[in-house]
Amino acid sequence: MESRPEFVGLWLGMAKVGIEAALINFNLRLDSLVYCVTTSGAKAVIFGGELAAAISEVNGMLGKNMVKFCSGDFNPDSVPVETKYLDPLLSTASKSPPDQIEAKGLDDRLFYIYTSGTTGMPKAAIVVHSRYYRIAAFGYCAYRMRPEDILYNCLPLYHSAGNIMGVGQCLIHGVTVVIRKKFSASRFWDDCTKYKCTIIQYIGEICRYLLNQPVREAEAHHHVRLALGNGLRPTIWEDFTRRFRIKQIGEFYGATECNCSIANLDGKVGACGFNSRILPNVYPIRLVKVNEDTMELIRDSSGLCIPCCPGEPGLLVGRINQQDPLRRFDGYVNESATNKKIACNVFQKGDRAYLSGDVLVMDELGYMYFKDRSGDTFRWRGENVSTTEVEGILSHILSQTDVAVYGVEVPGVEGKAGMAAIADPKAKLSPNALYQELQKELPPYARPIFLRLLPQVDTTGTFKIQKTRLQREGFDPHQTSDRLYFLDLKLGKYVPLNECLFERIRARKVTL
Fold first, then answer.
1. What is the dihedral of CA 300, 305, 311, 315, to 10 degrees?
2. Has residue 343 got a pLDDT over 80?
3. Are 304 and 310 in contact (CB under 8 A)?
4. 202 forms bridges with which residues in the sheet?
5. What gap in Å lies between CA 44 and CA 432, rounded to an integer?
6. How deeply is 350 buried, as exposed, middle or buried, from its count of CB atoms within 10 A (0-12, 13-18, 19+)?
7. Which of 17, 147, 272, 435 falls between 20 and 30 A from 374, CA-CA?
8. Which ranges constitute the DSSP H helices of 362-464?
């Protein structure tokens, strides 16, 4: 169901009687929806009335034995025939606790949260009770929250940021949490002012969307002192704090399932976290060298991973210790997916470590900066190109427009050529005016060879750019009706990419 207080009441109530909930992204449809429901091993589905059509579409694919409950707006004509109306069942149920409930421990499963699926089908990550408590408590203590705080939460509750870091402050510490059904850039500061919020949450591109809004009166009247989240681009960090008068940015790095979370506690601009270089073993995480093309670990002569020096990009890993709540890795429902995230002999012989899949850089002081997700770095002209960095610069040049950058293969050419998909709904963007700016901002190897101008760039429910389809379609004009451009280095400008030019590039008759 969409985000609302009942969502929390349902999974929390189920947890109290020993039922594990699988928290499903309400944007999913058809095969993706069926995949997430069935891989969890669910025997029943509770859905909001607003999503009745989505459930009806897949009713036959969920199996005859799947019990269905509808909460909220109930229309018998729009739900599968055998659906039960949950709200009256709850209102007539006993208010007394059940007589016999099997006691749950801190290491037992609480619920499942799915990865965002930016590179394939989502995976169901296991969240145990201790993990929920630890993430919420960490946020409260690390950023000095207070019981009287009011937290504005417009993030989806099927995601750990909204449901653990956000709602967890209410369940564990008594902080008031304001839940908004969906993020609205135009209503954001009006809501914060109306509810006297002192903390806001962000994730992914939310801060950029807010900066892209026209100035409004509510910006000057809010009481927000802390912005808490991850994914604030360094290129807009100071613009965001200055315009909206935010005293503290609580940027942190983490994933639902990871054991190597880090946090920026003192507002270092651009940093997503910190780890002591003086006492590195206190928190056993490392940046280790990898082949950035394949993301394979690079090992020394003894078979151990090689730690990165300051300034060297590396894969973030965390040593696994299942007896330590801070160091355990509970993995996914799918055992094969779990095993792919574990490496052996990383810090020392016989150990195991969690592989984050993310490339970070540490400076001389121990501050860490996000560089790229695995697969988001590509090699061109003998140089590694960071898609995250190029996206940030392009978006800044284009006044916070949605941009996706990725590498595409060109026949007969080593490496991958950069391609940028840019949201241009009104068809106003001038490719060559953009190129003039790119020459000032980016080195030659990082300038996109191909442009794709489209009405909008797809994002996940947690505001991460979706690139899978774009990468698959590449720069082939047969695959899309969007406007495509090619950077002709001889002419020094972008030229329209039609079928004729596409075939010449494929035949290696054009210089890249």
1. 140
2. yes
3. no
4. 229
5. 55
6. exposed
7. 435
8. 387-397, 431-441
Q: How, if at all, do strands 273-274 and 367-373 pair? A: antiparallel
CB burial of residue 214 (10 Å; 0-12, 13-18, 19+): exposed
Q: Check residue 84 and give left, alpha or beta (phi > 0: left; psi -120 to 50: alpha).
A: beta
- Which tens digits make up the pLDDT trace of 448-468? 999 999 999 887 777 777 787
| Beta strand pairing call for 226-230 and 248-253 | parallel
User: 0.70 exceeded by the pTM?
Assistant: yes
Are 399 and 212 in contact by the 8 Å Cβ rule? The answer is yes
Nearest to 125 by CA among 182, 84, 163: 163
Computed over every residue of the chain, the mean pLDDT equals 92
d(CA 482, CA 453): 6
Q: Are 311 and 363 in contact (CB under 8 A)?
A: yes
Close Cβ partners of 156 (under 8 Å, ≥ 6 residues apart): 3, 25, 26, 162, 461, 462
Number of CB atoms found within 10 A of residue 343's CB: 18
Indicate whether 120 pLDDT > 70.
no
Query: What is the model's pLDDT at position 100?
Result: 80
User: Could you tell me the two tokens for 206?
Assistant: 């939310």
Residue 193's H or E segment, with its range, is helix 188-194
The H-or-E segment that residue 67 falls in is: strand 67-71
371 within 8 A of 271, measured Cβ to Cβ: no
Amino acid code (one letter) for 128: V
Beta-bridge partners for 373: 358
Residue 332's CB: how many other CB atoms inside 10 A? Answer: 22
Query: Which pair of structure tokens corresponds to residue 138?
Result: 């960490």
**How far apart, in whole angstroms, are the C-alpha atoms of residue 61 and residue 48?**
19
3-state secondary structure 84-125: EEHHHHHHHCCCCCCCCCCCCCCCCEEEEEECCCCCCCCCEE
